[in-house]
């Protein structure tokens, strides 16, 4: 009778009894799960087994076992053989089916291979497995399947390095992936986006996994990452460009000035984070400055004395005062002196008058004091007259040195305005000696008083109308009321033998020398705007000084500039230093700033005998006790000084409104004979001496 059609799969399980399955004459025998026999149709009884599925190479990832599969038709039995040994029958999993197209039986066998089984194999041999299928005709073997333990090392054998290249230059980023089984696949990323050479032909990935950029472009800047991966892991080596970031601002520093205007600053650093691997640095300023005003210390002042007290029983009376006008504050000094005075009472006021020996002693003392004062006055008069006679004799004897020194006729043109009126000198043989003829009809006047009186605004000179301070012609060295040295080189050589003058420049063209007496005069350096005015009586009578005036080269000396200070004038030396002057001299020189003290903190620097520089004057805050005073004009600074030496004006801007004048000078050939034309450009301070 016909059998029912078989199902898609028929499984045979181990059983103690005999199971008979009607499947095209196929029978399963108890105790033979993997050893199954089948009665094949006569048309296929002479065919060898044919493998439909053969086992393939597998990789064990971590501790997960792998499954090998083998499928054959027609086959009565299938076994697995690993590394030359048969796999135990209990480790096989068998499935049976029938091919619907041919009606032949199909056998499907799988086994699991664990990591421990593979690790038991030592030596150079690899772990392999193979299928063996049987039929009534014979046996057939499948291909070998190799089972390997997969891994991937963490460290790259060669890592990419940061590079900075020029535009259109070829760049090669090398990357050798770590060792692994199976071998790692490599890909490149730019800013975490995959680099695809097919999409951008400017990129090429070589066979040894290096990335080549044919022509570097600005758009190619970024973080390039070499990624290595296999079935186990995906380590990557990233070439990270870390851009810098600012730290927080520090607290403001204390004000630089103890009293009045100054500046304070705060800073930050590019360390949050620090730029790495070619990352960009922080943009902006690392230091900020701000103007500040420090409260000035207030020194204490005495109040008026109180009235004398009544005469006490001990014939004494007293009075007092307090340090309250003003009271000391902000670190100012306390009042100096006594706050309590006592005095003996007169005989009428004293309740207990004692006459006799005490009155006699008082009268004798008063007479002695009067006699001493009289004798002292007589001595002073005699000394003064003798000194005057000696000075007149000295001037008469030195007439050979004062040839050409004529008195200067000066008429005050307006009250408070000093306006000397020079006369034109006659033509003489000594044309280099410029003198002024005396005007006997005028009254000779000169500046009286000390420099301190000029700090009063009502008593200042008006220095713009006098001919001695008018702009000078750009000629040879100019000298008024003095005698030019016939050999300037000899003059410089003689001065340079002294220790202090060894640093003087030997440039005679930028130096002026002359000999002066009590009549005074003026020295100028042509084409520089620099002059020295010596008023009459500034040099004591009977004294004759050899005076020099020179402009220093900036590169020949080291002028210390603190903070944001800048040089605003030439560095001018006049001397010799240490000479005794009865009145201040006036040193005129150009400056190159807007002359607005609200925008600048302007200081006058003076070089000491030891060669160090010190601030001697803060313009706009002159003190009565200072021996210097500066009068600023639009382009000129006039320095009133009771001392000779080396001076310079420096300034520090207080805010953005401050302006410093610069001059742009271009030099070129007058004629050009070729196609090449050279131009020299200089950017310099806008003062005459720098241009010269």
TrEMBL record:
Signal peptide annotation: 1-31
In its keyword annotation, does this UniProt entry include Transmembrane?
yes
Membrane topology term reads: Single-pass type I membrane protein
* Residue span, ZU5 domain: 510-653
Q: Which GO terms describe its molecular function?
A: netrin receptor activity
What organism does the UniProt record list as the source?
A: Oryzias melastigma (Marine medaka)
Q: Which residue stretches belong to region Disordered? A: 411-431
Residue stretches making up the Ig-like domain? 154-243
Full protein name: Netrin receptor UNC5
Lineage, please? Eukaryota, Metazoa, Chordata, Craniata, Vertebrata
Q: Does the keyword Repeat apply?
A: yes
What does it do?
Receptor for netrin required for axon guidance. Mediates axon repulsion of neuronal growth cones in the developing nervous system upon ligand binding.
Q: Which family does it belong to?
A: Belongs to the unc-5 family.
Record-linked InterPro entries: Ig-like_dom, Ig-like_dom_sf, Ig-like_fold, Ig_I-set, Ig_sub, Ig_sub2, TSP1_rpt, TSP1_rpt_sf
- CC terms in the record's Gene Ontology section: plasma membrane
Q: Provide the alphabetized UniProt keywords.
A: Developmental protein, Disulfide bond, Glycoprotein, Immunoglobulin domain, Membrane, Receptor, Repeat, Signal, Transmembrane, Transmembrane helix
One GO BP on record is: anterior/posterior axon guidance
Location of the protein in the cell:
Cell membrane; Membrane
- Membrane spanning residue stretches: 360-384
Q: Where is the composition biased (Basic residues)?
A: 421-431
Q: Matching Gene3D superfamilies, A to Z?
A: 2.60.220.30, Immunoglobulins, Thrombospondin type-1 (TSP1) repeat
């Amino acid at each position: 009778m016909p059998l029912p059609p078989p199902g898609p799969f028929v499984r045979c399980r181990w059983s103690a009894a005999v199971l008979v399955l009607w499947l095209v004459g196929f029978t399963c025998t108890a105790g033979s799960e993997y050893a199954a026999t089948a009665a094949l149709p006569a048309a296929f009884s002479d065919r060898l087994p044919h493998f439909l599925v053969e086992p393939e190479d597998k990789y064990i990832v971590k501790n997960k076992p792998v499954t090998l599969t083998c499928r054959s038709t027609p086959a009565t039995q299938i076994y697995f053989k690993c590394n030359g040994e048969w796999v135990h029958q209990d480790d096989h999993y068998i499935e049976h089916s029938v091919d619907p197209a041919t009606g032949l039986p199909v056998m499907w066998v799988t086994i699991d291979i664990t990591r421990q089984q593979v690790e038991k194999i030592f030596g150079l041999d690899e772990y392999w497995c193979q299928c063996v299928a049987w039929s009534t005709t014979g046996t057939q073997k499948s291909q070998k399947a190799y089972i390997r333990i997969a891994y991937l090392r963490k460290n790259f054998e060669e890592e990419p390095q940061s590079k900075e290249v020029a535009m259109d230059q070829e760049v090669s980023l090398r990357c050798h992936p770590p060792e692994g089984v199976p071998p790692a696949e490599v890909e490149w990323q730019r800013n975490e986006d995959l680099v695809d050479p097919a999409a951008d032909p400017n990129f090429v990935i070589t066979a040894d996994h290096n990335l080549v950029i044919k022509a570097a472009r600005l758009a190619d800047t970024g973080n390039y990452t070499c990624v290595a991966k296999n079935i186990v892991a995906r380590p990557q080596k990233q070439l990270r460009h870390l851009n810098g970031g600012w730290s927080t601002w520090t607290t403001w520093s204390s004000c630089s000035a103890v009293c009045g205007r100054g500046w304070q600053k705060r800073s930050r650093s590019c360390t949050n984070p620090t730029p790495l691997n070619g990352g960009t640095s922080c943009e902006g300023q690392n230091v900020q400055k701000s103007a500040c005003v420090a409260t000035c210390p207030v020194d204490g002042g005495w109040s008026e004395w109180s009235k004398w007290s009544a005469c006490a029983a001990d014939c004494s009376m007293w009075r007092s005062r307090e340090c309250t006008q003003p009271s000391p504050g902000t670190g100012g000094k306390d009042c100096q002196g006594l706050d309590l005075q006592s005095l003996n009472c007169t005989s009428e006021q004293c309740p207990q008058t004692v006459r006799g020996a005490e009155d006699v002693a008082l009268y004798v003392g008063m007479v002695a004091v009067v006699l001493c004062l009289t004798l002292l006055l007589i001595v002073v008069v005699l000394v003064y007259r003798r000194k005057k006679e000696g000075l007149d004799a000295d001037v008469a004897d030195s007439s050979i040195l004062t040839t050409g020194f004529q008195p200067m006729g000066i008429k005050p043109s307006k009250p408070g305005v000093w306006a000397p009126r020079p006369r034109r000198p006659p033509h003489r043989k000594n044309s280099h000696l410029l003198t002024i003829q005396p005007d006997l009809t005028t009254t000779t006047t000169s500046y009286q008083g000390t420099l301190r009186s000029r700090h009063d605004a009502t008593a200042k000179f008006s220095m713009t109308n006098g001919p001695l301070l008018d702009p000078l012609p750009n000629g040879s060295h100019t000298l008024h009321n003095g005698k030019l040295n016939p050999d300037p080189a000899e003059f410089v050589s003689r001065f340079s033998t002294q220790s202090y003058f060894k640093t003087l420049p030997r440039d005679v063209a930028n130096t002026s020398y002359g000999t002066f007496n009590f009549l005074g005069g003026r020295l100028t350096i042509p084409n520089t705007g620099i002059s020295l005015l010596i008023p009459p009586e500034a040099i004591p009578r009977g004294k004759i000084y050899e005076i020099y005036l020179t402009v220093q080269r900036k590169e020949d000396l080291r002028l210390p500039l603190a903070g944001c200070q800048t040089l605003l004038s030439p560095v001018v030396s006049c001397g010799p230093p240490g000479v005794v002057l009865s009145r201040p001299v006036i040193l005129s020189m150009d400056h190159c700033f807007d002359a607005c003290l609200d925008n600048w903190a302007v200081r006058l620097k003076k070089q000491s005998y030891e060669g160090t520089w010190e601030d001697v004057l803060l313009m706009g805050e002159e003190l009565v006790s200072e021996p210097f005073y500066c009068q600023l004009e639009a382009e000129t600074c006039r320095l009133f000084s009771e001392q000779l030496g080396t001076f310079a004006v420096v300034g520090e801007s207080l805010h953005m409104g401050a302006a410093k004048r610069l001059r742009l000078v271009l030099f070129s050939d007058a004629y050009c004979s070729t196609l090449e034309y050279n131009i020299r450009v200089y950017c310099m301070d806008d003062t005459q001496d720098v241009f010269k």
